[in-house]
Automatic annotation (TrEMBL):
Pfam families: GGDEF, NMT1. Keywords: Membrane, Transmembrane, Transmembrane helix. InterPro entries: DGC-Regulatory_Protein, GGDEF_dom, Nucleotide_cyclase, Rev_trsase/Diguanyl_cyclase, SsuA/THI5. Gene3D superfamilies: 3.30.70.270, Periplasmic binding protein-like II. Signal peptide: none annotated. The keyword Coiled coil does not apply. It comes from Aeromonas caviae (Aeromonas punctata). This is GGDEF domain-containing protein. The lineage of its organism: Bacteria, Pseudomonadati, Pseudomonadota, Gammaproteobacteria, Aeromonadales. The chain crosses the membrane at residues 194-213.
Length: 394
């Protein structure tokens, strides 16, 4: 691990899963993935944009513990300045920020040129494939189509601070007043020297009024835009970034709501057969393509009659409120029929099987118990030959 609680996001993830820092044996990181491969450590702090490429290139399968999948999503890689620097040199701060954002926008829209620049001008010695992978992963995490580059949510910072207090990395909440840099108006930067020198001139009153009117209009637009982006961020936090389906967090919320209803109905636990072999033989990118096709295929086959979510990996859940076993078996048959056609990846057809476990809700089951029963039924069904019911599988 990095010193000084630099791995706060990882510690928070383990903490909320019941593993406190005092139960760990911290090992100073060597920044060498070979320590994990050789078994010298059990958990390695890695970047999604870096170490997975090395492992995939060497044909090594690992389990990735992504804090985002557990509701932990801290900001990182942040630009900092001092309040004194902002006060004394506001133009310099604004220009530095603008240049940084301009560079990122260019890199995300011109990946080939950005990679070439890094290799020729800055001596980056990584392979072309590695840098393409790193830039693509960065783009998926930045989500530039949904969130403006450089935007930071004050409420999210407050939530991060509260989590740091809960896990003991922060003694108590601190004030975040003026913590986030507010972008000054470029027009105000331009006009300020002239305005201060001409403050006594009555003719500038009209110009100042016009400026204030424009600033107020821009401020109203920014407030509306920020509210829209916050709603988009909240929505993204509950969606699987690969398939666009509801993620585990959304699924568990829906399960808790459904078990409290008068007729929770049935739950289908779906798992692809031999999916690890597909990843091993064809690469994770091909496996991801199959998962996306599967999500669209099942969604198109069943329409909006149920709640369809991705649990993890190649595991998918369908909730059928009010359904009995017979009706659930009919939905299962529709899914199996949809899986008959081969998947196509890079113009290559692949036949992929699916195993489905059916579980009808029983009184006093918790959401977790319901999932476990359906999971057991699914494993009895491995191979996709029959439909297995949780009540029959014990």
């Amino acid at each position: 691990m990095f010193p000084g609680h630099q791995d706060a996001e990882l510690l928070a993830t383990l903490y909320y899963q019941g593993l406190h820092e005092r139960q760990l044996i911290p090992v100073p990181t060597s920044v060498n993935i070979d320590d994990l491969i050789a078994g010298r450590i059990d958990i390695f702090n890695a970047y999604l944009s870096n170490e997975p490429f090395y492992l995939e290139e060497r044909g090594i399968s690992v389990s990735v513990i992504n804090p985002r999948n557990y509701g932990i999503d801290f900001y990182s890689d942040i630009l900092f300045t001092t309040q004194a620097q902002e006060r004394l040199n506001p133009e310099r701060v604004a220009r530095f920020r603008a240049a940084s954002l301009k560079g990122w926008r260019y890199a995300l829209t011109h990946p080939e040129e950005a990679i070439a620049l890094l290799r020729t001008e800055y001596g980056v010695n990584r392979s072309q494939a590695h840098m393409e992978y790193e830039l693509q992963m960065s783009k998926e995490m930045i989500q530039p189509l949904y969130v403006e580059i450089g935007y930071m949510n004050p409420d999210r910072f407050a939530h991060i601070m509260q989590q740091l207090v809960e896990i003991g990395l922060l003694a108590k909440p601190v004030s975040l007043t003026r913590f986030l840099y507010q972008v000054p108006s470029e027009q105000w930067i331009f006009w300020r020297p002239w305005f201060l020198l001409s403050l006594g001139v009555g003719g500038l009153i009209l110009l100042l009024s016009l400026y204030l009117l424009m600033s107020n209009k821009r401020l109203n637009q920014e407030v509306a835009l920020r509210k829209q982006r916050e709603q988009e961020i909240l929505q993204l936090a509950r969606l699987d970034p690969l398939t666009g389906l509801p993620n585990r967090l959304s699924l568990m919320e829906q399960l808790k709501h459904q078990v409290q209803s008068d007729n929770p109905g049935c739950l289908l636990f779906c798992d692809l057969n031999d999916f690890k072999r597909i990843n091993d033989n064809f690469g994770h990118s091909q496996g991801d393509a199959i998962l996306c096709q599967l999500a669209r295929r099942i969604h198109d086959a069943i329409g909006h009659q149920c709640y369809f979510a991705r649990l993890a990996g190649d595991e998918f859940i369908l909730l059928l409120p009010g359904y009995d076993i017979r009706q659930a078996e009919e939905v299962t048959a529709v899914i199996r029929q949809a899986m008959q056609a081969p998947f196509v990846v890079n113009d290559q057809p692949m036949q992929v099987g699916i195993s489905i476990g059916v579980s009808h809700y029983q009184h006093d089951w918790s959401p977790e118990q319901w999932l476990i029963q359906a999971d057991r039924a699914m494993y009895c069904d491995k191979g996709g030959r029959v439909i297995t019911l949780a009540e029959q599988s014990g």
